[in-house]
Amino acid sequence: MTSQCFPRSARVRTRADFDRVFGDGRRTGLPVLALHWRPDDTIAPRLGLAVSRKVDPHAVGRNRIKRQLRDEFRRIRTSLAPGDYVVVARPGAAKQSGLELRAAFHDLLRRARALPAPAPAGTMPPPSSDPSAGA
Question: Is the pLDDT of residue 1 over 50?
């Protein structure tokens, strides 16, 4: 089982790091979230969050958004491409449920090609590993 902790080394914390991601990174967005991603093979995936008062005037609402995104990042961190990820919440994020925020985050990561696409769900059963079956 992988560690579910979120150490300081897994966070984009300094203004210089944020500026570097915003200036040199790739961008993709949805109506509720925007992702700025700067690939860097020398570091493990790190997350930065920007949730302003325009998104939700109440701290409890902003913290809920950040908590949902941090938790999802913690779960999928080992499968992400190395680099810095900064998620910027947009005003529609305050109205989203936790599941909707997580789904939007996954969609952004797939768009950025930082997270592998899920295996397609087909209608055919998986091939049998038994050589005598089906012959």
Answer: no
Residue 1's alpha-carbon distances to 4, 16, 78, 79, 114, in angstroms, are 9, 34, 11, 13, 22
Q: Are 82 and 44 in contact (CB under 8 A)?
A: yes
How many Å separate Cα 56 from the centre of its chain? 20
What pLDDT was estimated at residue 18? Answer: 92
Backbone angles phi and psi of 116, in degrees to 5: -60, 145
- Enclosing H/E stretch for 110: helix 98-111
According to DSSP, the β-strands at 26-29 and 33-39 are antiparallel
Name beta bridge partners: 48: 86
Pair type for strands 83-89 and 33-39:
antiparallel
Pairing state between β 46-50 and 83-89: parallel
In tens, the pLDDT along 72-112 reads 999 999 889 899 999 999 999 999 999 999 999 999 999 98
Q: Yes or no: say if 81 and 39 are a contact pair by the CB < 8 Å rule.
A: yes
Nearest to 111 by CA among 75, 77, 85: 85
